[in-house]
Design a protein that fits this description.
Blueprint: H1 46-68, H2 78-85, H3 92-109, H4 120-130, H5 133-145, E1 151-157, E2 163-169, E3 180-181, E4 200-201, E5 207-213, H6 216-223, H7 228-236, H8 241-249
Antiparallel strand pairs: 1-2, 1-5, 3-4
Helix pairs in contact: 1-3, 1-6, 2-3, 4-5, 5-7
């Protein structure tokens, strides 16, 4: 098993790492697998996706670069920045920009313009822990729709291997912990940009499988300030379930 830090020498093996670092402290917004100019119906019109991806994500990365240049964080990858700045009041801005950028990328990379039906193995695993796939969707939807303020709704795997739904607020995410473990990447042919996340974890952390951006700016353009329910319905029609499957079942296929 490899820690997040030990993955650095393997960067060249990654097809599209979560954040490409061509120079120290320079993080870049990576391309999506679909056209941001065309939008992503039904969840994002071109205008909405332009706001969430081209504007908001770029602003987060630009500001993160400003905050970390010529600091002890300028040579760190995004995971190390989040860990090093977590719960440190003097580094709150660094953590918020790094974590929010990671969350937003994880979310956008899990969407697809083409339907990606859920595999039976994943559906069965979800049904094991929620009773049925439909019960899971209802549970997730309730968490998202009742989240007060800005934040994220996640499907995660806990340290016991059980699937759970959790909300995080503002830029919070489930991967921040002192120690994380990940499957040896030497035995994985490809890891996509949104899949460079821990498979196994302990000390109370969770492995994220799926997330939904519940910041108001993500849905207000297309669905209005009271459009949470329609936005969530559109989300279910836009999930790339192959991505979710690969995150959960990657260790069983090597």
């Amino acid at each position: 098993m490899f820690s997040i830090r030990s993955l650095r020498p393997l960067t060249a093996r990654v097809v599209k790492p979560l954040f490409l670092q061509q120079k120290a402290a320079i993080h870049e917004v990576i391309p999506l697998a679909y056209s941001s100019e065309r939008g992503l119906k039904p969840i994002f019109s071109p205008e909405a996706l332009n706001l969430v991806y081209n504007k908001n994500q770029q602003q987060l990365i630009d500001r993160l670069n400003e905050l970390t240049v010529e600091t002890e964080h300028e040579n760190q990858d995004l995971f190390d920045i989040m860990h090093a700045s977590y719960k440190k009041s003097d580094k709150a801005a660094i953590f918020n920009h790094a974590a929010q950028a990671w969350n937003n990328d994880f979310f956008l990379q899990t969407l697809s313009p083409e339907p990606r039906p859920i595999k039976e193995e994943l559906k069965s695993r979800i049904a094991r822990d929620f009773g049925s796939f439909e019960a899971f969707q209802e549970h997730f939807t309730n968490y998202a729709s009742t989240l007060f303020g800005s934040g994220w709704t996640w499907l995660v795997e806990d340290e016991r291997g059980l699937l759970r739904i959790v909300n995080t607020f503002n830029a919070g995410n489930p991967v921040v912990s002192d120690t994380l473990r990940q499957l040896d990447s030497n035995y994985i042919e490809h890891i996509s940009e949104a899949d460079k996340v821990p498979l196994k974890k302990y000390n109370g952390s969770f492995a994220p499988l799926l997330t939904l951006n519940m910041w108001e700016h993500a849905y207000v353009t297309d669905f209005g300030p009271d459009g949470k329910e329609e936005y969530i319905k559109a989300f279910w029609k836009s999930v790339d379930w192959d991505k979710v499957y690969n995150r959960l079942f990657r260790s069983t296929r090597v």
